[in-house]
């Protein structure tokens, strides 16, 4: 079983739609959680950090469910510029980061 | 804050030569830096973890004599690909972390290496 699993998609949604991605992790001792976005041929950029039960930043909401060991990312009112690959990253003890394989999102006009 | 630079952004070299890639944290001190490589349409693959002033920790399957990592200061780490071959062609990305165990990684813009 992979340490971090994501649905690779692709998710194709119309502009203005709400879309949600889930990410599951296997180690219950995980410390911190992050969502990054990566555009094609670019580096990952930090989107949100999730240290407690959740975090909200404008149109983006991340939620953490420790009991079920998953993190979700909700994007409201999708924009064309949201098209990217979204990476779920989990930090374990010992400063070990585990990356999901990413979820591809395309927002269609 | 939390800006990481990488140089060069792209490089083309001949087979058998060595290439050095620099990774700098511009506005913070990075106790830990990470080096990744990424092939097209694949996820990031961690190559090694580098702590300032100590030897890098390499992931299984990564040759430490081929991928030399030096983390000489809290703002600079270098990756040298020695005797490069075409199969080393990839996107190399570094990241830097302020406080190990707690903080996010901030990624450099990457270096695209092509070995001919």
What does this structure look like?
The complex is a heterodimer of chains A (109) and B (116). With 109 residues, chain A is mainly β. Chain A has strands spanning 4-6, 11-14, 19-25, 32-38, 44-50, 54-57, 60-65, 70-75, 84-92, 96-99, 103-108. In chain A, strands 2, 4, 5, 9, 10 and 11 form a six-stranded mixed beta sheet that branches. Chain A has a five-stranded antiparallel beta sheet with strand order 1-3-8-7-6, with no helix packed on it. Chain A is globular and about 45 Å long. Chain B is globular and about 40 Å long. In chain B, the strands form two sheets. In chain B, strands 2, 4, 5, 6, 9, 10 and 11 form a seven-stranded mixed beta sheet that branches. Chain B has a four-stranded antiparallel beta sheet with strand order 1-3-8-7, with no helix packed on it. Chain B has 116 residues and is mainly beta. Chain B contains no helices and eleven strands. Chain A binds chain B through residues 31-32, 34, 36, 41-46, 49, 87, 89, 91, 93-95, 97, 99-102, and chain B through 32, 34, 43-44, 46, 49, 91, 93, 97, 100-102, 104-110, 112.
